Amino acid sequence: IFGGLKVNPGGIPWQVSVQVKQKNTNQIFRHVCGGVLIDSCWVLTAGHCIEPNKDMQVVMGGLSLDMDETTEQTIRVEEVIVHENYLETQSAVYNDISLLRLRNKDGVCAIETQFVKSACLPDAQLPDGLECTISGWGATEESGFGSNHLLKANVLLINQQKCSDPAVYGNILDISMLCAGHLQGGVDSCQGDSGGPLTCNQNATSYVYGLVSWGDQCGKKNKPGVYTRVVHFLDWIRSKIQAPSPSS
Ligand code: 4AZ
């Protein structure tokens, strides 16, 4: 996160760290992406976060990537579902969404606490200019590497036509994407934040309106962050979550 602030304990309880097991190790996992808890057993993340055939886990309820915190819950990923029309081209990433099904013990996966809580799925388009929140352990203006502490920043929803202006992203955007940020630059998501939440509050409820997806570098003037438009994928998400799991 560029231009961010440290998150306090319990501040973004739906934020997860999506982690992949390091090759040739037994139990060493590294952070690859953010993700969003949307149900006890389901995490939304970006399609481009998935490395095929790798063991994955999610860590929820923590703020620091390099310390074990008593508030954390770590759960293995049982199943990965990448969108059937996920497509990465040289200019953009389309349908950049995937679902992670978590391992359960007697039907329970994540346990709701002050530090671990699902975000709601949005049920409507939200207005341009609305202030929303992004978060993650990705690169900052000080460090090309990620941040060890979870950071957050406020961004504004940007009109799709304005974001498709030739001076911004031109004609490469589609309806699976939305832009958010500050056109003057400085505040943005960045590498390592991918898959994590853009949440917007309505009536004191937080809705996951976007997933960090891509952008032309980070924090640059006229190059806002591009997010997966979660409302566009509601039927897809519901169909996958309601479908019987492979083992049952
Ligand atoms: C990335 O490389 C990336 N400024 C993520 C988000 C943004 C740019 C790049 C948005 O994963």
Automatic annotation (TrEMBL):
Protein name listed in UniProt: trypsin
Subcellular location: Secreted, Extracellular space
Peptidase S1 domain boundaries: 1-242
